[in-house]
Amino acid sequence: MSTTRDFDLLVVGDLNADLILCGDVEPTFGQVEKLIDDATLTLGGSTAIFACGAARLGLRVALVGKVGDDEFGRFIVREMNTRGVNTEGVATDPQVKTGLTVILSHGNDRAMLTYSGSISALRFAEIDRALIARARHLHVASYFLLDALRPDIPALFDLARVSGLTVSLDTNYDPTEKWNSGLADALRRADVFLPNETELHAIAGIADTEAALEWLASGGAMVAVKCGARGAMARRGSERASAQALVVDVVDTTGAGDTFDAGFIFGYLAGWELARALRLGCVCASLSTRAAGGTAAQPKLAEALEKL
Questions:
Q1: Can you spell out the DSSP letters for 95-132?
Q2: Helix 71-82 and helix 46-56: axis angle, to 10°?
Q3: Going by C-beta distance under 8 Å and a sequence separation of 6 or more, which residues neighbour residue 13?
Q4: DSSP-derived secondary structure letter, 292
Q5: CA end-to-end span of the chain, whole Å?
Q6: Residue 39, helix vs strand vs coil
Q7: Residue 147, exposed/middle/buried by CB under 10 A (0-12, 13-18, 19+)?
Q8: What element of type H or E holds 114?
Q9: What are the phi and psi torsion angles at 270 (to 5°)?
Q10: How does DSSP classify residue 94?
Q11: Any residues with CB less than 8 A from the CB of 230 and at least 6 apart, and which?
Q12: Could you give the CA distance from residue 259 to residue 254 in angstroms, rounded to a whole number?
């Protein structure tokens, strides 16, 4: 993917640490103690997992986000750097604590508790405009968690498009379950929208997946919807595609959707046809579930292409 720009991707959004607890248990109040099978501290946040997945595939990635001046923040920056992600756009704010998510992972399902901390504190003014001009594509993740940045995301998208970038968006889940917060303005400016099935239904207000996909794609963006173990579906105008997930021994599904995004955007930037980009997304997502955490099992490009 040769280009005169320094980065293939500029990734903006949430950065947090994930504490993943694995086991066939459910927590019980009343000071009940239960034993789990494993515990892993790893990179978290859709933005970080997407960035690592894209870098693993060989894309040149720069990261924008905010962390606190604490051990979790330093852990995130250090881990991103070891994975080849440029972190010069990451702000450190001593006035906030780094975000943290505690995940109880059980097979193909998980429950999550998140402290937003620095995630919700990232502001538009803290984004280095020079980084935008150095990239080919802008990806924003966790739209509904970015409280301080969210009102300015349409302006961020406008700035990116004027600078010659294409734009993708993955909202992730809305903890308030209102599914609005100016989202329509952001979607009108996006080239690619990457929801999962639950998010697709809620945002479209349509319970049928194919009907919701058609309605959202009618707005002009390419839409790829993640359907978990059933794979994914996509639509670009009248063009449709679907792809199946790989059969793998699932350890943890944390971040699988973000790794799907990385694979799909790789194909998008390479100019692949819709079906092939969708298939790569499914391959990358499936392979990422082989280990605890969102980044430990993300594939390199050669491994993903073998499965493609």
A1: TSPPEEEEEEEETTEEEEEEE-GGGGG--GGGS-HHHH
A2: 20
A3: 45, 46, 47, 64, 65, 122, 140, 141, 142, 143, 145, 146
A4: S
A5: 19
A6: strand
A7: middle
A8: strand 109-115
A9: -80, -5
A10: T
A11: 244, 245
A12: 10
Structure tokens at 294: 């969102």
Distance CA 180, CA 188 (A): 13
pLDDT at 191 over 70: yes
For the record, the structure tokens of 103 come out as 């995940």
Find out whether 101 and 44 touch, Cβ atoms under 8 Å.
Answer: yes
Tally the residues of the chain: 308
240 residue type, one letter: R
Does 259 score more than 60 pLDDT?
Answer: yes
196: DSSP letter: B
Residue 152 token pair: 């300015």
Which residue shows structure tokens 């919700």? 120
Residue type, 254: T
Alpha-carbon span 11 to 137, nearest angstrom: 8
In this predicted structure, what is the pLDDT of residue 3?
58
Predicted confidence (pLDDT) per residue in 204-230, tens digit: 999 999 999 999 999 999 999 999 999
Q: Report the alpha-carbon distance of residue 146 to residue 63 in Å, rounded.
A: 15
The pTM of the whole model exceeds 0.90 = yes
Of the CA atoms within 13 Å of residue 45, those in its CB half-sphere come to 38
Domains and CATH numbers, the chain: 11-26+36-302 (3.40.1190.20)
Cβ–Cβ < 8 Å for 113, 102: yes
Tell me what pLDDT residue 2 has. 47
What DSSP character marks residue 126? G
